[in-house]
Fold this protein.
Amino acid sequence: MKSIPPGTCAAAVYYYNQGYTHHLLHTYAESGWIEFFHRGVFPRKGDHCEWTGALYTIQGQLKLPVHA
């Protein structure tokens, strides 16, 4: 899996495209490797998703043409 920059949340779609399953994401969340932030959004444990990180996720992982 590619590194996810600090301050960035990962979209579930990003993990699915990397080959992770819903069940595996749930297991990782239970083990504390990732946290559940919102439906389909996972920051790393203890990391805080900044607005710039959210924008990175939308543009880079979801490939949506948005800008601030």
In short: The first strand starts at residue 10 and ends at 11. Residues 19-57 form one domain. The mean pLDDT is 85. Helices lie at 12-17, 22-31, 51-61.
